[in-house]
Amino acid sequence: MQRDSNPIPQSSIFVNITRGIIWGVGICLVLDSCFNVNMSALIAALGVGGIALSLGFQDTLSNLIGGVQISFMRIVQPGDNIQVGNNKGVVQDVTWRHATIKNRNGETVVIPNSVISKNVHLPPPERISVPFMALSSDDLDSMAEQIVQIAHEIAAQYAEIVSEPNVLFTEVTAEGIMGKVLLEIDDAEQATPVSDAITRAIAPIVRK
């Protein structure tokens, strides 16, 4: 399933469903051939009982169907950057009941599949904003050029740059001039490392 040519999404929900089918078929064959159990009658009985069970497990079935839907139709796949309500992060896996995403703080968030199938947004490439304060107002253009060059070199080491870095000076205060570096990359997982690396690299420049 990890091959690039494989059309099946790389979500554990399909692995678990396949395992369940294999075990179910195997158990039926053993009961029929070794213990002479009438599988037709047993399957019919299980079908009647399944209707009763489905009424008590509506949420579970809703999450299962939602997981198959979003995975098979490739709405959400591991590695996608998604936003569900106030939760935004990179999809780690889609199971039979829920999907796990990792946000920019490194926290793992668990979201039911039924919620994702009804309310999911695929935001644009990850936007990075690094604020800073320049202590000196001498030659801001030169400072901006240096910051842009540093931000470009750092971001290119982590991911593909979708929107080139840009420096904006936003406010003049008693302590200095407020500004920020703006850019977009295609890999949301690298947003935090890129922000951290840019902050460390431009600190000596804005502190002059």
Task: Provide a descriptive summary of the structure in words.
It is a single chain. The protein is of the alpha+beta class and 208 residues long. The protein has six helices and seven strands. It has helices spanning 12-34, 39-56, 58-72, 113-118, 140-158, 191-206; strands spanning 81-84, 87-94, 98-102, 108-112, 126-134, 161-172, 177-185. The strands form two sheets. The chain has a four-stranded antiparallel beta sheet with strand order 1-2-3-4. A three-stranded antiparallel beta sheet has the order 5-7-6, covered by helices on one side. β1 (81-84) and β2 (87-94) form a beta hairpin. α5 (140-158) packs antiparallel against α6 (191-206). It is elongated. The model has no long low-confidence stretch (mean pLDDT 83).
Order of helices and strands: HHHEEEEHEHEEH
**Which blocks of ≥5 consecutive residues have pLDDT under 50?**
none
Helix/strand structural class: alpha+beta
What is the number of strand segments? Answer: 7
Q: Calculate the mean pLDDT score and round it.
A: 83
Question: How much helix is in the residues?
Answer: 40-55%
Q: In this structure, how is the largest beta sheet organized?
A: 4 strands, antiparallel
Q: If strands are numbered along the chain, what order do they take across the biggest sheet?
A: 1-2-3-4
The percentage of residues in β strands lies in 25-35%
The helix tally amounts to 6
Distance between the termini: 53 Å
Radius of gyration: 26 Å
* Global morphology: elongated
